[in-house]
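Handout, tutorial session.
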Amino acid sequence: MTKLKLKSTERVFKMFADKVINQSIRNLKNQDHIDSGKLAQGLSYDLKVHKSLSLELNFKMPMYGMFQDKGVKGSQSGRRAYKSPYKFKGKNIKEDVIEAWIKRKGIQGRDKKGRFIKRESLAYLIGRKIALFGLPATRFFSNAFRQHYRKLPKNVIQAYAQDVSKFLKETTQDIK
């Protein structure tokens, strides 16, 4: 006897996941949040079809992608990351992370007299400001997911109907 295969439904979920990832990358580019490119390259998904014919779709991204998407509340003020589950606990963040970012961006700080300041000092100041006041939410992934999720039910219903129709045709041919 022929077993039901969800080829059309599976294809719809793959197209949905691809659209979400591509839109997320476009959102990062449009918001000028692509630095090293590791976040955009780290976006992926895993689609599993279980024996019970249920589908499981999991999106994957580097951990800091969630911080970028939802924002991080500061230790003193959480205004920049409203409703974020994440919060800085200390008064500063790792300076080597900020230093590497400063170096990649080619940023050079100056004091009030216009003299250059050391990269370490600038990293300390930037890190302290981020830790105290937080990081704003970019919603690069959340908005992309929400946008394409709205269209998903109609597409899934049509694809599932195609799969069932194909299954019924194959099954009735076996009976004749």
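The second record follows below. Compare its token runs with those of the first.
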Amino acid sequence: MKMSEENIEDVTFENNDDNLDKEQDDEDDATKQKPKPERKSRKSKTERKIKELQDQYKELNDKYLRLYSEFDNYRKRTNKERLELLKSASHEVIVDLLPVLDDFDRAITAIDEHGIDEETKKGLLLIYNKLYNILSQKGLESMNSIGKDFDTDYHEAITNIPAPSKDMVGKVVDVIEKGYLLNGKIIRFAKVVIGS
């Protein structure tokens, strides 16, 4: 088949138009695939990753701080409980020794009343003072109740007697058994006689 020159030219133009369309499409594709949007997507991915890591860091840091504070509270609580246990352990021993102190008080009073020699009294006072000093170092203190207003928080009334003077009405006239405090807490109420 022979083509005429006109047909050849038409085919050439057609081919040229096809080539031009292809080139245009290639240019459009090239503009669509610019590296800039790729960088933006990479940036957004890294920003998201950074944000995730920062959130994870905040969460872990919060957990650490909570755990640390819980441990610190536990440590303080156990130290406090241990101190209270030590105090309560000595509490029982001290309460058991209070009758011995009472016996010393009675012995000293009996020595004064019966006029036993001074050397015996000095020896008895020496032993009493040693015992009382040891117990006072552990937190024991005796109540001085004579002449003070009757207070049910500290005193246990045994009986009422006529007051020796008007200013002693409602006050402690005599102490039958001393009261004691251990570290500021009452371990034994004072048994007292009140003036009426």
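Points raised in discussion: Strands lie at 140-142, 155-161, 172-177, 180-182, 185-188, 190-195.
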